[in-house]
Each structure stands twice: as structure tokens, then as C-alpha cells.
């Protein structure tokens, strides 16, 4: 009998570590990745021609990035690596793919989804102006392209990415005019004890925070409201501080986002059961510590099934691969399994403290006005959503989608989905867990009709 | 101190030597460097990537990681490409506000 076919989607830290463990066991996994080069977003590599020293790109994490980048090339023929390939559907143990305009499909016996995450977005006035990017987007501009998103840049966020990216921009020579955290500082301080369970990461956070404080530009915590002003492009960032006073800084670009959200569309299409996490206020496909989903043939690793960060993703990738091996009757090293499970449990405690330190900024959602664009793809407003709830009786986001097209645009609700659910919950006066979850639809990203779709 | 209406959005912080890649935006010649994604190449020259279909506005991309789909750009040869994942190519003719469609 031939070896089972194991497909992996994603070549970030989780995907490559899964591939490595499977290849070491003698299987020949197939790794699909949309990017040209491995690394995912956190360890994203510049395209050919734009390479720079790892220390400049990844700072403290340069060694880890280099190691992750080397995995697939070191495995050589022991893995089938399909870069520049979008997996746009999962259907009856088959993947539909698109590579450089050409369609394909791949049957699998086991599937490891390592689909990663993107920034979580909350709309604010001016957020669709050219020059406003997510924090992750601003970071990629610098990391992968060596450019800044503007000449005078302001950053807004609610999580550990904020001081990191401000530090990276300042270090690269950009003028950082404001770093605004929408989380009250007291909440962070309360959680410091919990974070110290992971001193290295915590120390890095303090390092970046302290470095930012030493530079010019405004630094503020507990920001209550914000808006970007400009005629056709960013001209200023205006915010209401913890003191209730309005502040304003001239700038030509803004990086703003509020934590991360999992890319879970393929898990949805694969039939995985989802659960609501009340701390991060997100739905995610259910998974065990070992990475097993509710579907016997599907495994989940990395940020695509709940946010844990890059180090956790590497552990989860390897652990999910060992679960695959266990489930197909291959021998695995029980002591390694125990070590991984213990490490993952430790990381989960740290993550809990981190999430609690950066609670969801409800106040920003509550202040979204009716004329605010909620659906970035098609310009549908928050008012349209409220009207669908109040006047048309929509009680959850899929119904809102049917009435308003919110979540139906090119991004498939990746950008608007969270805020839409929060707004539905506020309008109905119910917990956000009762506001529904946008169902995944194939294709999970736009694909050309002319490419020959069957 | 704000930027002029047509000033580029992006600024190169890390210069790379090597050959340049000529391309056009609405028929106007521009140059990029090897390793530039189309999004970078355009926004180093212009403040936006495309007109927004549903209102009198422009868009310049948002997530830079192939998720938000805000950066789809028209080329004069009829192709539509996602600028944050497409390398700029020699002779690419980008159409933002028209003027060069053939």
C-alpha cells in the first residue's frame, strides 16, 4: 500500500515544521503556499532582488526566521513544495488550487491547515483613505520592501505589535509622529505578573516600549476615539485621549489595527466545527493540543485556528504532524510528544495573560457612526447594518450579509466580519457569540474565470 | 506639514543598487527596482493604486498580505493583478485613472 497523501496549506512557521516532521518520518508531504517564498507573514521574505540581512528584517528573531526559511530547501526532494499556489477550496478530501493562473486539484488523505492570521480591523472615520494600512501591512512594507508607508507615520493599535512596529520604523529612519495604544495602561500593568511566566517575550515588549518613549513623537495609552482626516489622502490623525481631550498630529500615513484574527476559511470549507473564544471574541475551528480538528482527516496548526504567535506555531506544526503520524499508525517518539504538549500548555498560559492584557477595545466599536464605511470592498455603511437589524429583523451576520452585502465583497468578510458581528450584537443587545459567524464560501479569494475553472 | 495631493505615498528607506525596471502609470514613464512588488512600485510614484468603484475616492491597498483584496490593479493589456503579490515587470502599463489603455 502506498503512503497516504498528506497536504499542508501554508509555509509559515507552522506549515514548514509540520512538513519537516512528516518528511523525517518518510512521508512526502505536499506544501501549498500562496507566497513566492516560505516564512509566512511573520517571517516574510523579501522577493528576489530585495534581500537584506536577517538582523535588519527580523531583529531579535533573525535566527528563528533563518531556521524556518531553511526548512523546505533543506528537505529538498523529501517534500513537494508548491509556492505561488492559492488553495481556494476544500471539497471531499480534495483541494482546488490556482498556480500562476493555472488551475489544479489535489486529493489528500490527511490535511494540515496552517493558514495563519491577519490584522483585526475596527473601522474609524477616515480608515479607507489612501495611506491608512493595517499595522501588519505597514510592517510588511518595511520588512519585505524596505519602504515606509509615508514620510510622517502614526501608529495605532491594541497589542504587542504596536511598540514593535514603531520601533522598527524609527530604527529604519522613518519619522514616527505618534504611537497610540487604545488599551488603558492599567490593564497591561495588571497582567504583568502573568506575562512574567514568559520573561523573554515580556522583556522584548518593555524594550520596545522604552525605546519608543525615548524618541520624538507622541505616545499615548487609553485612547478613546480616533479619526483620520484628509482630502483624498491622509493629512492628520486626531484622537481623544484618556484625559478626554482631543489631540491632533499632522501625518501622511497611519498604521492601525487591533490584534489579529485567524484565517479560518479553509477549515470552515473542510467541515471543521468552530467554537467561540470569549477572551479574543473570535470564532475559531476547534482543535486539541495535538492539533486535531473535529474532522478525522483535518489537522490545525498555527494562528489559523486561534492566535498563539510564531513560536507556538512552530510547536503546533510539529505536534500536528506527529498527530497525523499517530493516526495513520506510524511510530512516534512518545517523549517528544510529551515535551511538545508541555511546552504548548506553558505557551497557552502566557497567551491567556497577553490576551487579558489587551482586552478588545469595545469603545471603538460602540462609537462607529451610521455613515461610517464598514464594508471596505463595496462601501457599505454601519447604518445599513443597523437598518438590517432594526427594520428587517436580521439577527446574525449571514442574514445581514444577505440584506446588505456586508461580508460579500472581494475580501469575503476578512476585514469587516469582526466589526459587523460586534455591531449586530450591540444593536440587538446580545453577546457577540450570538451574532453569528460569516460562513466561508469558495473561492476563498478572487480567482480569474478565464483561467479555466471547471 | 502635509503631502502635496499627487506626492507618492511610500518612501524608500533601504536603497538597492542594480538595474532599474521601466514601467508606466497612466502612460507616464516610471522606474522600479528588482524586488519591488507592483504595489511598492506604484506607491513610490503615486498616492493611490486605483479608483474605488463605489464612490468618488481612490484606494491604495490596506493589508499587504493578500487578504483584504484592496489592491487589485488594472493593466493596459487587460490583466487585473493583485499588486501586493505581483512583482513589477519590465514594461508593465498600469492604468489608474485611464489615459493609456490600448
TrEMBL record, chain B:
This protein's record includes keyword Oxidoreductase: yes
Keywords: Oxidoreductase
Record has Oxidoreductase as a keyword: yes
GO molecular function: iron-sulfur cluster binding; oxidoreductase activity
Protein name: Ferredoxin
Protein species of origin: Alsobacter soli
Amino acid at each position: 500500500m502506498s503512503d497516504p497523501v498528506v497536504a499542508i496549506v501554508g509555509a509559515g512557521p507552522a506549515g514548514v515544521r509540520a512538513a519537516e516532521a512528516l518528511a523525517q518520518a518518510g512521508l512526502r508531504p505536499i506544501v501549498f503556499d500562496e507566497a513566492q517564498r516560505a516564512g509566512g507573514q511573520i517571517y516574510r521574505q523579501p522577493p528576489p532582488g530585495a534581500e537584506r540581512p536577517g538582523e535588519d528584517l527580523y531583529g531579535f528573531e533573525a535566527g528563528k526566521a533563518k531556521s524556518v526559511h531553511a526548512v523546505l530547501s533543506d528537505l529538498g526532494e523529501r517534500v513537494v513544495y508548491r509556492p505561488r499556489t492559492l488553495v481556494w477550496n476544500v471539497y471531499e478530501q480534495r483541494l482546488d488550487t490556482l498556480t500562476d493562473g493555472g488551475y489544479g486539484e489535489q486529493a489528500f488523505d490527511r490535511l494540515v491547515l496552517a493558514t495563519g492570521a491577519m490584522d483585526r480591523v475596527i473601522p474609524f472615520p477616515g480608515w479607507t483613505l489612501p495611506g491608512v494600512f493595517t499595522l501588519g501591512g505597514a510592517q510588511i512594507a518595511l520588512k519585505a520592501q524596505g519602504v515606509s508607508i509615508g514620510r510622517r507615520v502614526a501608529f495605532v493599535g491594541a497589542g504587542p505589535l504596536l511598540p514593535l512596529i514603531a520601533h522598527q520604523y524609527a530604527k529604519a529612519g522613518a519619522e514616527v509622529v505618534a504611537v497610540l495604544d487604545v488599551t488603558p495602561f492599567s490593564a497591561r500593568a495588571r497582567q504583568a505578573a502573568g506575562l512574567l511566566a514568559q520573561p523573554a517575550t515580556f522583556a522584548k515588549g518593555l524594550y520596545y516600549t522604552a525605546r519608543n518613549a525615548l524618541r520624538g513623537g507622541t505616545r499615548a495609552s487609553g485612547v478613546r476615539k480616533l479619526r483620520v482626516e484628509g482630502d483624498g489622502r491622509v493629512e492628520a490623525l486626531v484622537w481623544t485621549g484618556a484625559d478626554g481631550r482631543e489631540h491632533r498630529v499632522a501625518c501622511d500615513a497611519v498604521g492601525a489595527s487591533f490584534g489579529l484574527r485567524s484565517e479560518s476559511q479553509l477549515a470552515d470549507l473542510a467541515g471543521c466545527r468552530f467554537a467561540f473564544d470569549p477572551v479574543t471574541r473570535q470564532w475559531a475551528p476547534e482543535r486539541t493540543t495535538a492539533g486535531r480538528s473535529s474532522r478525522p482527516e483535518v489537522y490545525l496548526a498555527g494562528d489559523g485556528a486561534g492566535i498563539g504567535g510564531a513560536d507556538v506555531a512552530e510547536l503546533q506544526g510539529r505536534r500536528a504532524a506527529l498527530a497525523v503520524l499517530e493516526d495513520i499508525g506510524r511510530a512516534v517518539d512518545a517523549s517528544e510528544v510529551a515535551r511538545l504538549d508541555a511546552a504548548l500548555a506553558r505557551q497557552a498560559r502566557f497567551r491567556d495573560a497577553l490576551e487579558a492584557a489587551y482586552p478588545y477595545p469595545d469603545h471603538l466599536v460602540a462609537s462607529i457612526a451610521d455613515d461610517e464605511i464598514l464594508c471596505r470592498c463595496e462601501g457599505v455603511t454601519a447604518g445599513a447594518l443597523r437598518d438590517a437589524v432594526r427594520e428587517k429583523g436580521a439577527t446574525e451576520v449571514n442574514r445581514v450579509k444577505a440584506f446588505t452585502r456586508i461580508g460579500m465583497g472581494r475580501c469575503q468578510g476578512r476585514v469587516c466580519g469582526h466589526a459587523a458581528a460586534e455591531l449586530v450584537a450591540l444593536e440587538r443587545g446580545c453577546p457577540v457569540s450570538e451574532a453569528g459567524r460569516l460562513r466561508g464560501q469558495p473561492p476563498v479569494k478572487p480567482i480569474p474565470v478565464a483561467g479555466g475553472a471547471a | 506639514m502635509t503631502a502635496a495631493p499627487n506626492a507618492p505615498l511610500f518612501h524608500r528607506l533601504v536603497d538597492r543598487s542594480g538595474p532599474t525596471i521601466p514601467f508606466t502609470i497612466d502612460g507616464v514613464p516610471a522606474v522600479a527596482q528588482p524586488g519591488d512588488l507592483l504595489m511598492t512600485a506604484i506607491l513610490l510614484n503615486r498616492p493611490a493604486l486605483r479608483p474605488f468603484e463605489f464612490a468618488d475616492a481612490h484606494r491604495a491597498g490596506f493589508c499587504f498580505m493578500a487578504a483584504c483584496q484592496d489592491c487589485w490593479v488594472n493593466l493596459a493589456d487587460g490583466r487585473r493583478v493583485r499588486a501586493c503579490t505581483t512583482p513589477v515587470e519590465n514594461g508593465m502599463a498600469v492604468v489608474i485613472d485611464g489615459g493609456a489603455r490600448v
